[in-house]
Amino acid sequence: MNEKACALADRALLALFKRVSQEADAVVERADSFMDGEGELVKSPNGSDSNTYYVLHVLIDSQRRIAEHAKDIAEAVLDMTLSTLRKQELPDLRSFMPLKAKAVQPIYPDAGAGSST
Question: Model-level pTM?
């Protein structure tokens, strides 16, 4: 169980350094399944010592926290890659705007002077 949690953390950090969204997505899915399986292990075994149960509970909780941290890192990678994709898809609107806006000239310059007919 310890190897699985550490492997998740390694994969999450690798996805962070390489910025690979597919790897980050796989880490999120595996972390969810890891935390689902943890619930079965936390149940108190029949006839076991309370000290043994406490030690097992602490160990399992620390592994769960490692898996949660790996999931958080992977979700951050997904957010980073999504924001870079959004920036790449949107055109730079500044290229469509003139460098200096020109004042708009009225079509009929005397129209606003209040001419009487």
Answer: 0.63
Distances (CA, A) of 77 to 4, 52, 62, 70, 81: 20, 38, 23, 11, 6
User: What 3 state SS string does the chain have?
Assistant: CHHHHHHHHHHHHHHHHHCCHHHHHHHHHHHHHHHHHHHHHHCCCCCCCHHHHHHHHHHHHHHHHHHHHHHHHHHHHHHHHHHHHHHHHCCCHHHHCCCCCCCCCCCCCCHHHCCCC
> In this structure, are residues 36 and 92 in contact, taking their beta carbons and an 8 Å threshold?
no
Q: Report how far residue 27's alpha carbon sits from residue 43's, in angstroms, rounded to the nearest whole number.
A: 26
pLDDT at position 21, please?
Answer: 87
Angstrom distance (rounded) from CA 71 to CA 8: 8
Q: Which domains does the chain have, with CATH numbers?
A: 2-88 (1.20.58)
80-112, pLDDT tens digit by residue?
A: 888 777 666 655 555 555 555 556 666 666 655
